[in-house]
Amino acid sequence: MTKRINIDKFLTLMRSQSPLDVRAPTEFEEGHIPNAQNLPLFTDDERAEIGTLYKQSGKESAVDRGLEIVGPKMAALAREARKLGGENPIPIYCARGGMRSNSVAWLLETVGLLPVVLDGGYKQFRQWVLKRLERSLKLRVIGGLTGSGKTLILDELGKSNEQILDLEGLANHFGSAFGAIGQPKQPTQAQFENQLAWTIDHFDSDRPVWVEDESRMVGRRCVSPTLFEQMRSAPLFVIQRSMEERVDILAQNYSQGDRDELIECTQRIAKRLGGERSAQVIEQIQAGRLHEAIKGVLFHYDRTYTHGMSLRDSQSLQQVDARGKSAEEVANLLAALPSPEV
Question: Domain 3-130, what fold?
Answer without folding.
Answer: Oxidized Rhodanese; domain 1 (3.40.250)
